[in-house]
Write a structure and sequence with these properties.
This protein is mostly helical. It has one domain. Helices cover 77% and strands 0% of the residues. It has helices at 3-24, 26-60, 63-79, 84-95, 99-109, 115-124, 130-141, 147-166, 178-181, 189-202, 207-241, 244-258, 266-274, 276-285, 290-303, 305-316, 324-350, 372-399. Helix 13 (266-274) packs antiparallel against helix 14.
């Protein structure tokens, strides 16, 4: 039997096994699904939607091209991506996963990036947001605000290192583009304004149409993200019930022993491979020293979890941008973040008065004071924009 047939057989078996597990454990599946839906409904949708809509409008009006021309002398030599990558990086940091992939795919569709440039750009513009690291992880999960600076510094520095390393990705393929790249080594403000004006003239859509399309596209992306969050919440719970997590933890414990790492962190690593929040929750509960737990949390934040990676893969699937370089970049960032956390532990935590006591995880996300307003208003915001999406979608199809 050919390799493709074996792959088909394996995929069919895994799908049937997952379906059977959900049928055999309906209560656990429902609880996990409800938990994933609550995270999407209250936090993910209302926090990401404004960034997605504004980004679509900024691209449509040419403001991203304006910033791109001005940032070209910085982004090109450092990361070998166009200056517009600076905008994507900033928005990715501000709004968190998977905004960087969404904007990279959008710029690729606009032909503002080559596929190699897009693969470089997406590899380092998908970050955890400061709100998530400071409020959710540091305050909420570890109940230790002093960890925020340490986690954020390790995360964003490792992200920078990944971007610098990925500049060498595909350099042979891009050799023929060197003349185009060096055309405007020192752009002027007038050149940037000219690019903005040219983009605006090319876009013949009225403002109302652009706004409607921005809302439609953003809500569609967030619906896909919500589906992945719910799916991986159920998958993680099912794997835990059937004993896969314990089996994998037993195998990993041997590797942890070789590197003198606490074996109690194997289960948090398994959980974090699938989903960031659950992995960090498990790490905070582990019977290990605070430094070891924070190193594990930093690795999980850098790796991003298969849930986030699946979201990115679905976004990139609409373009010719390959997913594999992004996956390699996530592995690199996970290890870089863990090493930097160990290096920066003393200057950014111990020397700043951090204490080494362990902390109990929170009982619920409502305990996070910085997220209280978003938690209470999030469902209303989500419901409003879902109704607006249905209305805009109906109008768009009625016009045809």
């Amino acid at each position: 039997m050919s390799r493709e047939k074996w792959n088909t057989l394996l995929i069919a078996f895994l799908m049937l096994a997952l379906t059977a597990s959900i049928i055999l454990h309906p209560k656990a599946s429902l609880e996990a699904s409800r938990g994933g839906l609550e995270v999407w409904w209250t936090i993910v949708f209302p926090s990401l939607l404004p960034f997605f809509i504004i980004s679509e409008l900024l691209i449509g009006f040419g403001i991203v091209r304006f910033a791109g021309v001005l940032l070209e002398p910085v982004m090109r030599p450092l990361f070998k991506v166009p200056g517009s990558g600076g905008f994507v990086w900033a928005m990715g940091i501000a709004s968190g996963f998977p905004a960087g992939a969404k904007l990279t795919a959008r710029l690729r569709k606009e032909k503002q990036l080559t596929n190699i440039e897009a693969e470089r750009l997406v590899s380092f513009t998908n970050c955890s947001s400061p709100l998530f690291m400071f409020a959710a992880v540091s305050v909420g999960i570890f109940k230790n605000p002093a960890l925020g600076i340490l986690l954020a510094s390790a995360h964003y520095l490792s992200n920078l290192l990944v971007g610098i390393i990925m500049r060498f990705h595909g350099r042979q393929t891009e050799a023929q583009n060197e003349i185009r790249i060096k055309k405007f080594p020192f752009p002027l403000f007038s050149e940037a304004f000219g690019a903005l004006h040219e983009t605006r003239l090319k876009n013949k859509k009225p403002i109302g149409k652009m706004l409607g399309d921005a809302v439609l596209g953003s809500v569609q992306t967030l619906l896909v993200i919500g589906g992945f969050i719910i799916l991986f919440s159920v998958l993680t719970r099912i794997l835990d019930i059937v004993g896969f997590s314990n089996m994998a933890a037993g195998i990993l414990s041997q590797a942890f022993y070789l590197f003198s790492l606490p074996e109690t962190l194997t289960k948090p690593l398994i959980a974090g491979v699938f989903e960031i929040t659950q992995g960090n929750m498990e790490a905070s509960k582990a019977n290990a020293g605070l430094l070891s737990k924070v190193i594990m949390a930093s690795f999980i934040l850098g790796f991003s979890g298969l849930s986030v990676q699946a979201q990115v893969a679905s976004i990139l699937a609409e373009t010719d941008v390959r997913f594999f370089p992004f996956f390699i970049a996530r592995m690199m960032q996970g290890f870089f973040a863990a090493i930097l956390t160990w290096v920066l532990w003393k200057p950014l935590y111990v020397n700043r008065g951090g204490i080494s006591e362990t902390y109990a995880p929170p009982n619920g996300i409502e305990e996070l004071e910085p997220l209280n307003i978003l938690y209470s208003a999030g469902p209303l915001i989500t419901l409003f924009f879902l109704c607006l999406y249905i209305w805009l979608y109906w109008r768009k199809n009625a016009a045809y």
